[in-house]
Amino acid sequence: MSEQRAILLLADGTTYEGKAAGKIGTTTGEICFNTGMTGYQEIFTDPSYYGQILVATNAHIGNYGIKDTDVESDNVKIAGLICKNFTVPYSRHQAQSSIQEYFEREGVVGISDVDTRAIVRHIRSKGAMNAIISSENFDLKDLKRQLDATPSMEGLELSSQVTTQEAYTLGDPEAPIRVAVLDLGTKKNILRNFVNRGCYVKVFPARTTMEEINAFGADGLFISNGPGDPGAMDYAVETAQAMLEEDKPMFGICLGHQILARAVGIPTYKMHHGHRGINHPVHNLLTGKSEITSQNHGFGVSPEAIEQNLDVVEITHRNLNDDTIEGIRVVGKPAFSVQYHPEASPGPHDAAYLFDQFVDLIKERKENR
């Protein structure tokens, strides 16, 4: 375990001192917290966290080591880690390395041995803000200058930083169903959910035109999760509007949900501190059932705008903690979306039915042609 000093400075001037974790260095980003007790490696590699410093509320991070296949993208996406116990010794036969080795390899700067409960309470009270971690520079004035130069997450377009650079395919080319994925920062388990349901999937870069997507001959259209402010993504909104004109089954998750909402005129907003964890209760208004869900978002769709446009969009899911919008479907179109993550990884599988719903909708439309 490192005994080297590290410091955390928040944009409002609050500071915490602890021990260095991972790579020795300095990093900046928006501070946020995740309440999940498991799945730290999947969380680290979720592209939706790009540009964010993560506070892990679970007491031990690293205790079951690192397994090369437990990832949701090709590398770590978090900007930095804050945790109570950075547990380097691990106890899992399948693990291939320790979290310290992993962070050094991936270039991740972190801080441990801080009061994460106090930090989370501060974020819940004051809201999300930028922060800086350093284990090499302890000059607060200099750190503050670096922090002031870090752009706010509000108004930031980040999907271009995490999307695939080239289109690629997954699954059986002879499969009866083709799904086109607009990759705004997709997780691997989303793609696995499609392939496991007999779909041939083609994943397209975020700025792909509808003409290129149509050349694939997709039966269904999907808009993925991803990082950043949906309000800064007019290019994706234009693509979503073109998708709606195709009148094909359409599905969006997280950022994809926000982009679909914007495509039909519903604005988005920056949340006070967002939802991140694997225990968020959601009410399915169509079935009356509740789901425990995996979530990771700092923006939401405007409930006021939806209430004024119920002829355009129908609310299908609401968050049982704060009544925020968790799901919509477009009136008169085979298009729906959810704010949470039905693919989980990590998290419960309560909402996996949404993939079945999408595939069944595709099959129904194909049969009725």
Structural topology:
Layout: E1 5-10, E2 15-22, E3 26-34, H1 40-44, E4 52-56, E5 60-61, E6 80-82, E7 85-86, H2 99-106, E8 109-112, H3 116-126, E9 129-134, H4 140-148, H5 159-162, E10 168-170, E11 177-182, H6 188-195, E12 199-204, H7 210-214, E13 220-223, H8 234-246, E14 250-253, H9 255-263, E15 268-284, E16 290-301, H10 303-307, E17 313-319, E18 325-330, E19 335-338, H11 353-367
Parallel strand pairs: 3-4, 4-6, 5-7, 6-8, 11-12, 11-13, 13-14, 14-19
Antiparallel strand pairs: 1-2, 1-9, 2-8, 3-9, 10-12, 15-16, 15-17, 17-18, 18-19
Organism: Neolewinella marina
EC number: 6.3.5.5
Domain Carbamoyl-phosphate synthase small subunit N-terminal: 4-134
